[in-house]
Design goal:
The chain has 748 residues and is an alpha+beta fold. The protein contains 17 helices and 32 strands. Strands 1-2-3-5-4 form a 5-stranded mixed beta barrel. It has a 5-stranded mixed barrel with strand order 6-7-8-10-9. The longest helix is centred in the C-terminal third of the chain and has 31 residues, at 589-619. It starts with a helix and ends in an 18-residue tail after the last strand.
């Protein structure tokens, strides 16, 4: 029997009025089931869920009391939706419903994103249509992006590109697609047996830039600017700089230190000794708030995107390129509008004074991290670079005294050639030059938060809460397996974890503990209520230094404009005059903070999955080779390992470990052979043979070099090339793959 929700969804998406007969046929109901359906429909009519006609259950105009909606946009943390299957008799546009949680119900909006489908009760009020969500429905596109495969009988199958989707779907309608093409599909009917139909052909899945396109489509990342937004960007870019109303810092040798391939430069730094053992310094940040005004089309689009998304082959910018890569970018020799943070660094490395101004700057040098480091190492650095290193050493001393969380987490770097093909995948080198910029940015971010607090102004904080007690207990139990004790009776600080890591002498064991500490941490987010930044060991922290690529930073800039009376009205009447916070943001920062936190998580997932696909593509030509690996996680169904020096996480299924019985111990996270006593634990180094590298999903599979088990074919269809070797026996433990958390410290 179908549920109430399934019946409603069928009625609302049916192209023709659906009566009891059509509903019974759709769900394959017979005999007594039809009688039960009749009673169900009667009950639903009495509850007001359907209109109750005997022969045709359908909407009678307007919006049904209960219907399926699709989230169209999220603005200021508030979701707006339209009916998922809108087909009124006239050609009027679908109604736009504001999604509001019913009183006393647990909020669901934090989990909603553009494109989500929800079942909701609706009502028409004086303010328009309102929807109260009942439940979130599976997305129609889940698992429906994939590659067309044609079997020997000529039947089409959709092989999914999402590693979490294990089975292929039969294709009922190819829509002109050919074997090997990347496509988007949708269900062809109510039953999964009906298969799918291709609705869009994307082309060659292994072509340059295809991997990022997969992530963009899967996560619904806005990547095409509307024409009116581009037009407004061109207007904003022509705003003249008023030198008279800005502090003139063009004589300072301010330098922007960035990656060699950076296209946007949103920060630059300068320092000189103050004659008292400390330094004066300026952190100049692109004055994006001057060009992107609250309530403008540019602003609404930037808010919707939340942040720029960085892939190896492209950047999906938060702002149009005329701003992000040109007018707002701090380029060498060009006059640029900047928000200047002036700080005084004491001989002990503490920031003792700060002030904020709107300024005009002329960047003296754009220099790559590697080039700056090379000049310092060779003793050939000019004075402006020597001063930056001198000021940084004081900041670094203060950082060491603060003792923030110190996890040595390598970051993979994908290098592409001119044709867009993979030239190299390596671990990104961590230089002092990176630390110099990072510590200057942290100092400016702290100064921005404290400056706004001093004015009792609204702040969008960057919040990282301490680990939860549940995670700490799990970490304590895990540490006991190594003979280490984590006492929970004390105040938990980053220093505690740092000392714990220093006490671990064995490299293998340290790697395990480091990953365990990482998994115990909470996820950082944005919010208006200060809870400190645990990882950085800071009581107040905000993001101020990257307004070109983060909307949170733009909000902080606007708050500074208001708090320190830095307003500069736009001289053009076709752009909003104010550049400070809007009344809407000032009244409720929590909504926009939630929205940009969601956008950040979306970007991180998309970036991580794309890197996984590039790594798998890089390794696809090396299937069969044996690699040095380290175990990163163990579950009852097998263990995960990563290739040393390269990355690339893959599964070793327990079915490949031979015929002996393997027991999984959740407390120690180990698999132990019942006969041999062989044990597999996180951190163990071992040689593994690469058995599978799927570039489309980013999935890798390994096996022991002398494996006698089998790798199950992916896709849910028999693989005639594999023989029926015996599968290993094992004890299933906790299901589900552990989160693959990596360091996201791109620049700061």
């Amino acid at each position: 029997m179908p549920t109430r929700e399934q019946v409603i969804e069928f009625i609302q998406t049916s192209p023709t009025p659906a009566g009891k007969r059509e509903i019974a046929k759709a769900f394959g109901l017979k005999g007594q089931e039809k009688i039960a359906l009749k009673k169900l429909l009667k009950d639903m009519a009495e509850e007001g869920l359907i209109d109750g006609k005997k022969t045709a259950y359908h909407r009678m105009g307007g919006v049904p009391k209960v219907t399926v909606l699709r989230v169209l946009e999220i603005e200021d943390g508030e979701a707006f939706a339209i009916p998922d299957a809108w087909s009124p008799d006239d050609a009027s546009p679908p109604p736009r419903l504001r999604v509001v949680e019913a009183k006393g119900k647990k909020a669901r909006q934090a989990a909603l994103k553009v494109g989500d489908r929800i079942l909701a009760r609706t009502e028409e009020t004086g303010r328009g249509w309102t929807a109260h969500p009942m439940k979130k429905l599976p997305a129609r596109t889940d698992g429906l992006m994939g590659v067309v495969e044609i079997d020997k009988s000529g039947k089409g199958w959709l092989a999914p590109v999402d590693k979490r989707v294990r089975t292929s779907s039969p294709i009922a309608d190819l829509g002109g697609a050919e074997a090997g093409q990347l496509v988007i599909a949708e269900p062809a009917g109510r039953s999964p047996r009906a298969g799918v139909k291709v609705v869009e052909v994307l082309g060659d899945p292994l072509a340059p830039k295809a991997f990022s396109l997969i992530a963009i489509a899967k996560h619904g990342i806005p990547h095409i600017f509307p024409e009116d937004v581009l037009a407004e960007g061109e207007l904003a870019a022509k705003l003249p700089l008023s030198h008279d109303s800005r502090e003139d810092l063009r004589d300072l040798p301010i330098v922007a230190i960035d990656p060699a391939d950076a296209r946007d430069h949103d920060d630059a730094i300068w320092a000189e000794p103050d004659g008292e053992g400390g330094y004066r310094a300026v952190i100049a940040i692109a004055d994006v708030s001057f060009y992107v005004r609250p309530g403008s089309k540019l602003d609404r689009e930037a808010r919707k995107r939340g942040n720029s998304v960085y892939f190896p082959d492209r950047v999906v910018p938060m702002l149009p390129e005329v701003l992000s890569a040109d007018v707002c970018s701090l380029k060498e020799g060009e006059d640029r509008a900047a928000m200047a943070c002036h700080i005084r660094i004491s001989p002990q490395g503490k920031v003792t004074k700060w002030r904020f101004t709107r300024a005009v700057v002329r960047i003296a040098h754009n220099i790559a991290y590697e080039d700056a480091q090379a000049k310092i190492d060779a003793g050939e650095a000019p004075e402006w670079l020597v001063n930056l290193w001198g000021a940084w050493k004081l900041l670094a001393d203060a950082r060491a005294a603060r003792d923030p969380l110190d996890l040595d987490l390598p970051e993979r770097r994908v290098v592409l050639d001119e044709a867009g093909k993979i030239a190299e995948i390596a671990v990104r080198e961590r230089l002092d030059a990176h630390r110099v910029v990072e510590d200057f940015m942290i100092a400016a971010n702290v100064a921005a938060a404290k400056a706004l607090e001093s004015k009792t102004a609204p702040v969008v904080y960057r919040i990282h809460e301490p680990p939860s007690r549940e995670k700490l207990i799990a970490l304590r139990d895990y540490m006991k397996t190594f003979g280490h004790n984590l006492a929970l009776g004390q105040v938990i600080t980053p220093s505690l974890f740092n000392r714990m890591l220093k006490d671990v002498g064995d490299d293998n064991e340290k790697a395990q503990v480091m990953e365990a500490v990482l998994r115990s941490q909470t996820q950082a987010y944005y919010g208006p209520a200060n809870a400190g930044h645990f990882g950085l060991a800071l009581s107040s922290y905000a993001h101020f230094t990257s307004p070109i690529r983060r909307y949170a930073d733009l909000l902080v800039h606007r708050a500074l404009v208001d708090a320190f009376h830095l307003e500069q009205p736009a001289p053009r009447g076709d752009l909003p005059p104010a550049s400070g916070l809007s009344d809407r943001d000032r009244e409720d920062l929590s909504k926009v903070s939630d929205a940009i936190s969601q956008a950040e998580r979306r970007a991180m997932e998309a970036e991580r999955e794309t890197i996984d696909r590039y790594v798998a593509a890089w390794l696809s030509g090396r299937v069969g080779e044996v690699f040095d690996t380290r175990i990163t996680g163990v579950q009852g169904f097998g263990f995960f390992a990563t290739i040393l020096g390269l990355g690339g996480d893959g599964l070793v299924p327990v079915s490949t470990l031979g015929g002996e019985y393997f027991a999984y111990d959740e407390a120690s996270q180990t698999l132990t052979g019942g006969d041999s006593g062989t044990k597999y634990a996180p951190g163990d180094k071992l040689k593994l043979r690469l058995a599978e590298a799927n570039a489309l999903t980013g999935a890798l599979k390994f096996e022991l070099p002398d494996s006698e088990g089998t790798i199950e074919p992916r896709g849910g269809r028999p693989d005639p090339k594999r023989s029926g070797k015996p599968r290993g026996k094992h004890m299933q433990g906790q299901r589900g793959r552990p989160k693959n958390i990596r360091h996201q410290g791109r620049k700061r």
